[in-house]
Design brief:
single chain; about 300 residues; alpha/beta; eight-stranded parallel barrel; 12 helices; amino-acid biosynthesis; schiff base; 4-hydroxy-tetrahydrodipicolinate synthase activity; EC 4.3.3.7
Length: about 300
């Protein structure tokens, strides 16, 4: 017996990592490090990678850096996994330009966040996403994270946008479980949990998988949550999700952004991470020690 029939289509895989963007000691883009991380993630269970998202510090990387990152990661992983490139900005014209750039660089899809700061009403928000979807040949992932953007993509807006042939998926950080289920019930959109604590909960009601920040450091362990559920062993899947809770909380809900905590852990583990770009600041020594202790306890369990 399996639970696989509950899942919605997976245009970009099921177990996706919202990959950090590594920098060198001087603060420049570390493409060699990005390639090493990408290969590691794929070899340990990620079947899709999201570049230049929130975790990838997209607000502080240049357009040229975003394109170079896609090109380098594609070179490293080949066609083994889909690459989704974050192109969302608060400017529709700029977002369109980035979508076309991502397509040229070799991305398989684009992640488009709601325009932040300006807080457009729903009709303007819908027009924004449609214009971006019309601009290139790439499929589009709607990124709903109102806690950062100030604007929710309302369920009725999602349902209308699902009619567009290139709007195919959602990265869900809405914390609106009821709204998510309404969209799942009325569309064919592929839903990805964008909050690590919701991986199993959303998967169990028909989501496609996850786009995870925590997967930067424990890709295989998070993939195991989905695998256990698909094998029909819901109790094991639940235990795996619960076992991840302390690390998820420390990395995502303890006062430091996920980018900061991931890079602290990767640096502690001798993997490419490097600095974060201002206005973010690196984790302090005590925070880095706590993160490493939680990581070691989790992987030893």
């Amino acid at each position: 017996m399996t639970n696989a029939a509950t899942a919605s289509p997976s245009p970009f895989g099921r177990a996706l990592c919202a990959m950090i963007t590594p920098f060198t000691e001087s603060g420049s883009l570390d493409l060699d490090g990005a390639q090493l991380l990408a290969v590691r993630l794929v070899s340990q269970g990620c079947d899709g990678l999201v570049l230049s998202g929130t975790t990838g510090e997209s607000p502080t990387t240049s357009d040229a850096e975003k394109a170079a990152l896609v090109t380098a990661v594609r070179e490293a992983v080949g066609d083994r996994v889909p690459l989704v490139s974050g192109v969302g900005t608060f400017d529709t014209r700029h977002t369109v330009e980035l979508a076309l750039q991502a397509e040229k660089a070799g991305a398989d899809g684009v992640l488009v966040v709601s325009p932040y700061y300006s807080r457009p009403p729903q009709d303007a928000l819908e027009a924004h996403f449609r214009e971006v979807a019309d601009a290139s040949g790439l499929p589009l992932v709607l990124y709903d994270i109102p806690g950062r953007t100030g604007t929710r993509i309302e369920p009725e807006t999602m349902i209308r946008l699902a009619e567009h042939p290139r709007i195919v998926a959602v990265k869900d950080c809405s914390y609106d479980f009821l709204g998510t289920q309404k969209v799942l019930a009325r569309t064919d959109l592929a839903y990805y949990a964008g909050c690590d604590e919701h991986i199993l909960a959303l998967y169990a009601v028909g989501a496609t998988g996850y786009v995870s920040t925590v997967a930067n450091v424990v890709p295989a362990q998070l993939r195991a949550i989905l695998d256990a559920f698909e094998a029909g062993d819901t109790p094991v899947s639940a235990r795996l999700q619960q076992r991840a809770t302390p690390l998820v909380e420390l990395m995502m809900a303890a006062g430091l952004p996920g980018t900061v905590t991931v890079k602290a852990l990767l640096n502690s583990l001798g993997l490419p991470g490097g600095s974060v770009r201002a206005p973010l600041r690196p984790a302090g020594r005590e925070a880095a020690r706590e993160l490493l202790a939680a990581y070691e306890e989790f992987v030893a369990a």
